[in-house]
């Protein structure tokens, strides 16, 4: 999650993030020397644990000799255990047998031990010259599987393949299981990368950047720790402020080191309880500021699985002035639960779907189906971006960033009808019932209420649907009100879900989660305008004939 950039040591590549898995096609022994030596030189100088698995034509003795020539103090790196060099028969093919699970688990264990010893991550390379054709498919399956392992850890992996032992089909297999390939052409190293894969990867990066902005903009300190080790892998700006340390110092600390001396055992026990799923709401704790101050905090934490990685996310709220903080605490807890729900379900699931399409695309030959598999992740990530945009709007709304003004609901509905009127297969009707001027007090987010309702009607109905928007002016216990109805002839909403769909933070079902954040945003806004919103059956008593959402807002003047 940190997105930390590391020097690859290879000029043609430059800096790469943790989780990078690439390959090198080489012709000669000198080619191997030219990439392996600078690759490990950069890793050793950056405080990483480095591991080189060798084979002909660049043996274990060759590697050590070349490293010693190029890297000052190389023997010290070897003797301290920061650098490990071994033959392929000591790692890949022990007793002549290649076992994918053993090798994959071995890398993770090497990383765990390296992190315990204070190294920032694992940098590794393996030469495949030993690999025979009979074991090719099993090794390609391993290369595909290791993508999922490396991508979720502080690892950088470089796999080297001899062009003398690869035919055209083999090269395609190798490129398809790595992020990019490096090969020497006319004396210069060049990167080879699929254009479609690159574009989709950029879309993923964009979505992650937007989520990073949401993480950094949170109004409370947030720490992310690995469940397996207890070490902190990420934090936000509020966390830096809380304990008076920069992110670079916080990352790598054990979670117990956030607290005063003498409390380590208690905090270790609390962390273990959270890992077991025992929820401790508003747990009171103390954190140690860099200047020596001990700060009382309220902690909410929960374990999550993000892309296969077990993490713990903790929300810390400064509790120095408890009486003043009581209201803020409740709001922060609500926001924390919302963030947890988004990270553990919506955003994580969307990214998993996108990655699933990419996995399918990698296996397909060029053609329309492959193009479609590359386009699909972009659509999923656009939905993720809309979700993040809604959360940011809610943040700005709670901060009072939007100015209220008089708004004509009739004109607003006409704008919404125009915005969605061209959706294929969906008929959207607007009936103002003669109320061309229905003025309410609101802000620019009033448009989002009706846009969300119409958008939901479009998404949750079939290929063809009839959607109606109507405006009436009514008198009730609220006084004179604008009543807006948005109805559809889709599958409808069962009675037991009619209340919960507006509350994102309830323990909801898959159906109510499918409504996304939109309805939670709708209700929050309507409540702030002094109005009401509810859902009812389009045909009374039969929810299967469609749903009708009703918004009631007080008229002014």
Work out the radius of gyration: 28 Å
Tell me the domain tally.
Answer: 3
**Major β-sheet annotation:** 7 strands, mixed
Output the structural class.
alpha/beta
User: Which strand order do you get reading across the main beta sheet?
Assistant: 5-4-8-9-3-10-11
Distance between the termini: 52 Å
Compute the number of strand runs. 23
Mean pLDDT metric:
85
Identify the CATH homologous superfamily of the largest domain: PAS domain
- Helix count, DSSP H or I runs of 4 or more residues: 16
CATH architecture classification of the largest domain: 2-Layer Sandwich
Q: Keywords, please?
A:
Rossmann fold; seven-stranded mixed β-sheet; five-stranded antiparallel β-sheet; Beta-Lactamase; 3 domains; alpha/beta; Heat Shock Protein 90; 557 residues; globular
Can you describe what's shown?
- The protein is α/β, with parallel strands linked by helices and 557 residues long.
- The chain folds into three domains: 5-190, 3-Layer(aba) Sandwich (Rossmann fold); 204-398, Beta-Lactamase, CATH 3.30.450.20; 405-554, Histidine kinase-like ATPase, C-terminal domain (Heat Shock Protein 90), CATH 3.30.565.10.
- The protein is built from 16 helices and 23 strands.
- The protein has helices spanning 29-45, 60-70, 74-80, 100-116, 136-150, 168-176, 195-216, 237-243, 247-250, 264-275, 322-363, 368-398, 409-420, 446-459, 510-513, 518-528; strands at residues 5-7, 15-17, 20-26, 49-54, 83-87, 93-94, 97-98, 122-127, 155-162, 181-185, 188-192, 221-226, 232-235, 283-288, 294-306, 309-318, 405-408, 426-431, 439-442, 465-476, 479-488, 532-539, 542-554.
- The strands form six sheets. It has a seven-stranded mixed beta sheet with strand order 5-4-8-9-3-10-11, sandwiched between helices.
- A hairpin with a 2-residue loop joins strand 6 and strand 7.
- Helix 4 runs parallel beside helix 5 and helix 13 packs parallel to helix 14.
- The radius of gyration is 28 Å and the shape is globular.
- Residues 505-516 have low confidence and may be disordered.
């Amino acid at each position: 999650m940190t997105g930390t950039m590391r020097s690859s040591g290879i000029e043609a590549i430059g800096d790469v993030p943790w989780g990078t898995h690439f390959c090198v096609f080489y012709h000669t022994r000198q080619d191997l020397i030219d990439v392996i030596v600078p690759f490990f030189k950069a890793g050793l100088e950056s405080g990483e644990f480095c591991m080189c698995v060798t084979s002909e034509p660049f043996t274990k003795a060759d590697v050590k000799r070349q490293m010693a020539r190029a890297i000052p103090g190389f023997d010290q790196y070897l003797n301290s255990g920061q650098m490990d060099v071994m033959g392929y028969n000591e790692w890949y093919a022990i007793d002549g047998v290649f076992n994918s699970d053993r090798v994959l688990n071995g890398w993770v264990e090497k990383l765990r031990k390296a992190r315990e010893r204070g190294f920032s991550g694992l940098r590794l390379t393996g030469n495949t010259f030993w690999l025979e054709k009979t074991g090719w498919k099993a090794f390609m399956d391993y290369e595909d599987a290791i993508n999922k392992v490396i991508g979720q850890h502080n690892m950088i992996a470089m796999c080297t393949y001899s062009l003398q032992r690869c035919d055209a089909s083999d090269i395609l297999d190798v490129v398809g299981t790595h992020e990019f390939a490096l090969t020497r052409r006319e004396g210069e190293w060049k990167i080879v990368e699929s254009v479609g894969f690159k574009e989709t990867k950029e879309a993923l990066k964009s979505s992650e950047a937007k989520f990073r902005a949401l993480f950094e903009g949170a109004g409370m300190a947030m720490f992310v720790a690995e469940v397996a080790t207890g070490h902190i892998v990420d934090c936000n700006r509020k966390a830096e402020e809380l304990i008076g340390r920069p992110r670079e110092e916080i990352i790598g600390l054990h979670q117990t080191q956030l607290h005063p001396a003498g409390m380590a055992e208690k905090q270790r026990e609390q962390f273990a309880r959270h890992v077991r799923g025992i929820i401790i709401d508003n747990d009171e704790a103390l954190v140690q500021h860099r200047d020596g101050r001990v700060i009382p905090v309220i902690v909410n934490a929960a374990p999550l699985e993000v892309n296969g990685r077990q993490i713990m996310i903790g929300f810390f709220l400064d509790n120095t002035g408890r009486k003043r903080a009581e209201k803020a605490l409740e709001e922060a807890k609500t926001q924390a639960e919302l963030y947890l729900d988004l990270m553990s379900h919506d955003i994580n699931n969307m990214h998993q779907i996108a990655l699933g399409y990419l996995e399918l695309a990698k296996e397909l030959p060029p053609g329309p189906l492959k193009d479609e598999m590359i386009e699909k992740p972009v659509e999923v990530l656009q939905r993720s971006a809309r979700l993040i945009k809604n959360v940011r709007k809610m943040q700005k709304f709670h901060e009072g960033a939007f100015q209220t003004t008089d708004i004509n609901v009739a004109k607003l509905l006409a704008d919404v009808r125009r915005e969605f009127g061209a959706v294929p297969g969906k008929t959207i009707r607007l009936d103002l019932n003669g109320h061309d001027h229905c003025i309410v007090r609101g802000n620019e987010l009033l448009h989002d209420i009706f846009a969300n309702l119409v958008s939901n009607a479009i998404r949750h109905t079939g290929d063809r649907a009839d959607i109606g928007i109507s405006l009436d002016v009514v008198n009730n216990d609220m006084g004179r009100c604008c009543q807006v109805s948005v109805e559809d002839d889709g599958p409808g909403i069962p009675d037991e879900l009619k209340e919960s769909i507006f509350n994102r933070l309830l323990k909801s079902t898959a159906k109510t989660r499918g409504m996304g954040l939109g309805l939670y945003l709708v209700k929050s806004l309507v409540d702030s305008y002094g109005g009401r919103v509810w859902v009812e059956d389009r045909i009374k008593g039969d929810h299967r004939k469609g749903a009708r959402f009703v918004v009631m807002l007080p008229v002014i003047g």
